What we know:
There is one protein chain. The protein is of the alpha+beta class. The chain has 5 helices and 11 strands, in the order E-H-E-E-E-E-E-E-H-E-H-E-E-E-H-H. Strand 5 (74-81) and strand 6 (87-92) form a beta hairpin.
Amino acid sequence: MTNSLTSLGTWANAPLALVVAQVCYTPTPETDFRIVANLIKEALGNRFSMDNNVEQLAFVLGADGAPSITNEPTCVGVDLISEDARTCLRINNGAITFNTSDYRGWEEFIAEWEAMLTVLNATGPITATRIGLRYLDFILPSAGRKPEEYVIDGIGKSPASLGQAPISVSLYEYERESDGRLRVQYSRGFGPPMTPPDLQGTAAPYPGLMARYQGAESAILDMDRYAMLNKGMTASELAIEFSKLHTDLSESFQHIISPLALVEWRDETKEG
C-alpha cells in the first residue's frame, strides 16, 4: 500500500476503510447481469477469482401469524470477488457496484473502474440514470482522544446542554447546485467500527486499519456523493463525471475533519 502498512490512499495514517462506486442504468437484454459478469471475467483475467450469486427471497407479512415465504430464492445478480476478499464487483440488472478496500489512490481506482465500465459499454453507450461515489472512514482515536475530536463540532458533537452522548448518529444531506446531493453520516459508539448493513457481505474493510484501534470508542464517517444523469454515456464520459464527484468529496472531507485529524492522518513522518 502507499506510504503505510496501516492505511489506504496517499495519507500516511488515513482512516479510509472502504470505497464504493456505483452506476445505475436502464437495463437491456445486452446488459443482463450474467452476460456482463462473464465479459468482465474474460476482460480482467485473474482480478476476480470467485463469484457468488446474489439471491432475493420474498416474504409476505400479514396481520396474523408468522411471515410466510412466497417463492424460492431468485438470483438477481452476481458478486465477483477477489482472492483476498477486499474487492467485490456486484452486477445486477440495471446496476453495477465496485466495492474495494484495495485502494492506493484515485488515479489507479478510476482507471480500473473505467475498464469495468468499458466492458459494460461493449455494445454502445448505456443510459446512465444515477451515479454515486462513497467513502467509508473508520475513526479510531489515538490514546487519550475521543472520536468527536477528529471532526468539526456540527458533525461529531451532541448538544452541549445535554453533554456528549456515548452513542450518537448525525445525518446531513446537502443539495448541489449542479447535480445531485452529498450525504454525510457520522456514527459514534463503543467497540470496533463495522461496515453499514447495506455494505456487509461485499468487500472486507482494510484489515490493517484496525491495528490502530485502542479498544475504546470509535466512529464511522460515511460520505456519499451522487448525481442524477438520465442520459446515454460512454465509459470515458462516466469516468469524467466520477472525477467530479471525487473532487467534491475530497474538498468536503477537508472541511469536515478537525486540525487534529489533519495532523494525525496526514503525518507522513509516521511509519506503519
